[in-house]
Design brief:
Blueprint: H1 2-9, H2 26-38, E1 40-41, H3 43-50, H4 54-66, E2 70-72, E3 83-85, H5 88-123, E4 130-134, H6 136-149, E5 153-158, H7 171-178, E6 182-188, H8 189-193, H9 195-206, E7 210-214, E8 221-224, E9 228-232, E10 241-246, H10 249-264, E11 266-270, E12 276-278, H11 286-296, H12 301-307, H13 312-326, H14 331-341
Parallel strand pairs: 5-6, 6-7
Antiparallel strand pairs: 1-3, 2-3, 4-10, 5-8, 7-11, 8-9, 9-10, 11-12
Helix pairs in contact: 2-4, 3-4, 6-7, 12-13, 13-14
Length: 357
């Protein structure tokens, strides 16, 4: 049984039946495959081969019988009837045809509903082009839907404090990228200085997403295919809320805001050892910001090097370069300069924000 089920996993992801698309669960598919290989078998023998109780085996066979995939021969010589598999080319072919027809009908219905929705939207008032979504679950669902529905590009402005979905929870982003959707993302510098945020950004760059960094973004924002946007709604309520903006002059303004911030931001890239660096002259990069944050928190050079998995000389060399950029001669002066320039916020030294909505 273990060997048989392992062979099935070669055709599909773990736990997903190959014939699940036509409605067969794992037990039903296993029973049909065994019968195809044997030609015919009694329930007792089949149950033993499948590693199932006879009751469960009979239940799977009855389901297969209703789909026309197996048939029970008449009992003879005092033995219970044997079960025989229907020819796959005929039986499965019929089910696949039915499934294709059902999908075609569903696609037609979806197209008609979309057409009806667009027609209604064209006749609606301007305020109908903006939706209000309230509650963490609703906001998270719409955030995922917006990305999963994107066909070409997703643009986003990201702050260091998630509203409803953390970077780890945002699985829709990775799924969209696998479908060929392009991501352009601008993050606040606070995100780059956090360990978790740094890991999320490295993963995004590893997926060939375009990521840039800026000191502050004006608002959280995500735009899909320049036709649908999502922005947070500031409200005096306990739960998060967001505005969903459909194609309109407001959406064009939001897209213009994104492009303006994108032009001002500095690109991020991965260096040879997998850490983030800003592509631009002067100023600290992502690793510099981490070093500064840890030094300001009271760690020694050696402790910083150990925590960031860097060499001690690398840490000291980067600190010396930062002192040259700041045009100071002591580390005390560098600390004052760090705060004046806003490289590290006073209340953000110990923050570890997620990159997310």
């Amino acid at each position: 049984m273990a060997h048989f089920r392992h062979s099935v996993s070669e055709y599909a992801p773990e736990g997903v039946p190959v014939l699940g698309a036509i409605g067969l669960d794992e037990d039903q598919e296993s029973a049909y495959r065994v019968l195809v290989g044997l030609g015919a078998a009694e329930v007792t023998d089949l149950a033993h081969r499948l590693g199932l109780p006879e009751e469960g085996t009979v239940r799977a066979l009855r389901q297969l019988e209703r789909r026309g995939l197996v048939a029970q021969s008449s009992a003879s010589s005092g033995h219970s009837g044997r079960w025989v598999a229907a020819p796959p080319a005929v039986a499965l072919g019929a089910l696949l045809t039915q499934q294709r027809h059902g999908l075609e009908q569903a696609e037609l219905a979806a197209a008609l509903l979309a057409q009806e929705f667009r027609a209604e939207a064209e006749e609606s008032m301007v305020h109908d082009l903006v939706e209000v979504v309230s509650g963490a679950t609703a906001v998270a669902n719409r955030f995922a839907q917006l990305q999963l529905a994107a066909e070409k590009e997703v643009c986003a402005l990201v702050t260091g404090k998630p509203v409803a979905v953390t970077g780890v929870e945002n699985v829709a982003e990775e799924q969209a990228v696998r479908r060929g959707v392009t991501y352009r993302v601008v993050v606040e510098r606070e995100v780059v200085s956090g360990e978790v945020g740094l890991a999320e950004l490295a993963a995004a760059l590893g997926r060939d997403e375009q990521v840039r960094v800026i000191d502050r973004v004006p608002t959280k924002l995500v735009v899909a295919d320049r036709s649908l946007a999502m922005v947070p709604l500031a409200r005096n309520t306990a739960g998060p809320a967001a505005l969903i903006v459909h194609a309109s002059g407001l959406l064009e303004s939001l897209m213009g805001l994104f492009e303006a911030v994108w032009r001002q931001a500095l690109p991020l890239r991965l260096d040879a050892v997998g850490v983030l660096e800003e592509e631009g002259p002067g100023g600290p990069d992502g690793v510099d910001l981490q070093i500064l944050s840890l030094l300001l928190a009271g760690l020694t050079d050696a402790s910083v090097a150990k925590q960031l998995d860097l060499g001690l000389r690398t840490v000291q060399r980067r600190v010396k370069r930062l002192m040259e950029i700041a045009e100071v001669s002591t580390r005390l002066q560098l600390g004052w300069h760090v705060y004046e320039r806003g490289w590290v916020a006073r209340d953000g030294i110990h923050d570890r924000p997620d990159r997310a909505w």
